[in-house]
Amino acid sequence: MFCCTVFVEGVLIFMEIIREKTEKIFTQSVDIFKEQVFCCLKEKDVITVGIPGGKSAEQFFSFVLLDKSIPWDKIHIFMLDERVAPVDSIDSNYFLAYNTFLRQLITESRIPENNLHPVKFNFEHTSQFQVVKRYSDVLFGISNQLDILIVGVGPDGHIASLFPNHKSIENDSFGFIEVYDSPKMPKHRMSASKNLIKSSIITLAFFTGKEKHQSFKDFFNQDISEIQCPAKIIQKIKKLYLFTDLNE
């Protein structure tokens, strides 16, 4: 475990790196998530959490479900990114989250269904601009930011649906954005913008699996830009927890 505080563009950033075996990573991440939820709730009545898809997210969801002391009734869950697919499709990130932990939270009355915010795409139109705009409006009706982010980092350094050397990472909007031409299938997606991500208070980011070795190295390489490694945008977030099962 390694902790440090650094100034980034005049802002004091706390960063902790947790390097453990895979299972221990996820048990520790749940403890930190719960601690930070209660920390945020000292300042707010309700908080917003952005969740992704992917293998790391699925593992985190499985472990977080086991902790019965998390106050889910005070948490609103948004998708950090989503594929343009029906919410009941196996291609949907929400479907993964729902089957892994959200359905049980609802069944056990631990979270109100109104606290869950899937993206409901309109398949009568090619463009999802209005859907994405409404999704931003729903978030901003609750909070001016995503308070806590759960982030899985890709082998190429992408996070959410912001990809290296791609116009998605260059988009300066504040909110959610539509991505038409993702280099990763499927091509049509929605994503939190880089500026929405940067506005968050706390991020838990996972670099798990040997295929993440290069993106983990790039994350700390000062010669590599955010455009080349989009994960680097989370370095601007005030509290950053990095979890990895990689050796040095």
Give the number of helices. 7
Arrangement of strands in the largest sheet: 1-2-11-10-7-3-4-6
Number of strands: 11
Q: Do you know the CATH architecture?
A: 3-Layer(aba) Sandwich
Determine Rg (CA atoms, Å).
Answer: 17 Å
Biggest sheet overview? 8 strands, mixed
Q: What value does the average pLDDT take?
A: 94
Task: Indicate the topology.
Blueprint (H helix, E strand, L loop, with lengths): L1 E7 L2 E9 L2 H20 L5 E5 L3 H10 L10 E5 L1 E3 L9 H15 L8 E2 L11 H14 L5 E5 L14 H4 L5 E4 L9 E4 L1 H5 L3 E6 L5 H8 L18 E6 L4
Parallel strand pairs: 2-11, 3-4, 3-7, 4-6, 7-10, 10-11
Antiparallel strand pairs: 1-2, 5-9, 8-9
Helix pairs in contact: 1-2, 2-3
Describe this structure in words.
This protein is an alpha/beta fold and about 250 residues long. It has one domain (about 10-245): Rossmann fold (3-Layer(aba) Sandwich). The protein has helices at about 20-40, 55-65, 95-105, 130-140, 165-170, 195-200, 215-220, and strands at about 1-10, 10-20, 45-50, 75-80, 80-85, 115, 150, 175-180, 190, 200-205, 240-245. The strands form 2 sheets. An 8-stranded mixed β-sheet has the order 1-2-11-10-7-3-4-6, sandwiched between helices. A 3-stranded antiparallel β-sheet has the order 5-9-8. Helix 2 (about 55-65) links the parallel strand 3 (about 45-50) and strand 4 (about 75-80). The longest helix is centred in the first third of the chain and has 20 residues, at about 20-40. It is globular and about 50 Å long. About 40% of the residues are buried.
